[in-house]
Structures are given as C-alpha cells and as structure tokens.
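Weekly modeling sync, notes
Attendees: AB, CL, MP (scribe)

Item 1: holo prediction request
CL wants a bound-state model with zinc ion before deciding which constructs to order. AB pointed out that an apo prediction alone won't tell us much about the pocket. Agreed to run with the ligand included and paste results into these notes for async review.

Input as submitted:
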Amino acid sequence: MGTATLNPASERSLNLTTIFFVVVFHIGAIAALFTFSWLNLGVAAFIWWFAGSLGIGIGYHRLLTHRGFKTPKWVEYTLSVFGTLALQSGPLSWVSTHRIHHAFTDQENDPHSPRHGTYWSHIGWIFRGTSQNQTEETMRRYCPDMIDDKFHRVLNRFYWIPVIALAVGLFAVGGIGMVFWGIFLRTVVGWHFTWLVNSATHLWGSRRFETRDDSRNNGLVAALTWGEGWHNNHHAHPRSAKHGLAWYEFDINWIEIRLLEMVGLAKDIYAFDPKKQEERKQVKLDPVTDAA
Ligand SMILES: [Zn+2]
Ligand SMILES: [Zn+2]
C-alpha cells in the first residue's frame, strides 16, 4: 500500500528514542536465542501472560479504556503496573491513543489504520508522531476519568521503571540469559502480537457485525493476545468486557475477568449478549468509553 502520505501523522518527525529502544530490544530478542533454557522460556511465558493478558488486555484495554467492569482501586493500579511491563507506553497515553482509535476508526485521524499502509498500522505509527507520548491536552480530552489520578499520572510518566526493577530481579535470579528472555524477547514478541490487533484485525478475518470500520474477527490474533483478536465484535460493542461471543471464540481475558469476579475483585461487569440486542439499545451510551 503506497498511501501513507494520506495520513498527516506520517509526515511527523521520527521518534528517535523509540526507534533506538525498539532496535535494541529486537537485537536482545535475537541474543536470547543463544541463551535458551526451559526455565528462561517458562519465565518469559509467565511474564508475557501477566503483562499481556492481565496488564494490557484486561487492565489497559477492557478496564481503563472501555470501563467494561469495576475493580477496587488497588486492583486497577496493580493491573496498570502489569501493563507497563509490556512497554507500550504509560496508561494515560495508551488509553488516549486507543480511545482516539475507537473515535476515528479507519478514518483520517485513526493513529494506526491499515488504510494508511500495512506497515504504518503495525509499527510505522510508533516510529512517528505522538501516539506513544500524548500531550497533556490530548490526555485531558480523552482521559477525563483518569487525568487527575495521581497514581496514573506518575505511572504514565515513569512507566519504564517497573520493567527495570523486573530486569534487576531476573538478573539476580537467573543471570543475563533470563533477562534476555524475560525482558527482551518477551517484550518484542508481546509488541508484535499487540500490533497485530492494529494491523491484521483491520485487514484479515470475518465480520459478524457491519461496523463502519474494517475491523475483523481473527482467531489466530485472538490466540496470540489472550482473546483480543475478536476485534469486529469489539468495535461493534466496545464497552463489553466479553469479546468472544460464541463458544469457538476463545477469550481467555474474559475468563480471567470472570475469575476476578468470582473472588470478589471485579463487579458491575458489562458483557454484550447477542441474544439480548434489543435490551442493549435502551442502555444510554457513554461518549468516552463507548466511542465506536
Ligand atoms: Zn481496532
Ligand atoms: Zn478497544
């Protein structure tokens, strides 16, 4: 696709610091292949789960961005800290970018639409523009519910500190090999899996709902992202904490939210039920969390 120039964001300057770290992490990920051990693999997989599933999918996305359920504050903050371990920016920046994506999906102002190029939607948008480091003005506009929360403000600014603490811990326990696996390789794999939600699930897959965007349900991306790949369902019903709507649409993040509910850590869960569509139409939509 050679239409990248249509997006004004693609004309913005390069984020050299971001590019530097993305390159370094990819080199670290390759280095990890020379320090394989089953323990290192297991540690990487475990961190990938709580950073990617509990942190990004459940914390940043279904809870903070869309408010599909409620948790005690300490649970919300814990999930946010797990989210920072994925190194996808701080919670205020991430939530702002994602709410902008829902407000302008596959239109001119979408931060990462494949209509501006497949490469752009996967990684190009991270190398340019301000999506990874939203301005105070943008965050205030798109995160009115979080912008004055001190914990989230500090975490947003210093989101890279928890991963450094984790790296120090891994080094102490398992040496440099465990750092290569648990930090570098795990982060790079997690990045590409998350980025597939922005690229692949707006290009390839099936559509249950006739949404105005190009969103798709993609089983492969869902398998790689703990259920975030049922993206057409999600764009049709953004607030729903449940993305997989059929028995074959496996949604681990949803199962985990139900488990949180069972132990009393999640309540007021909103889950879209295809059988009760009529009832849904009567519910008043929230302009921020329901932006579609
Ligand atoms: Zn999308
Ligand atoms: Zn969303």
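Recorded for review: The radius of gyration is 18 Å.
Action items: CL to compare against the apo run; MP to circulate these notes.
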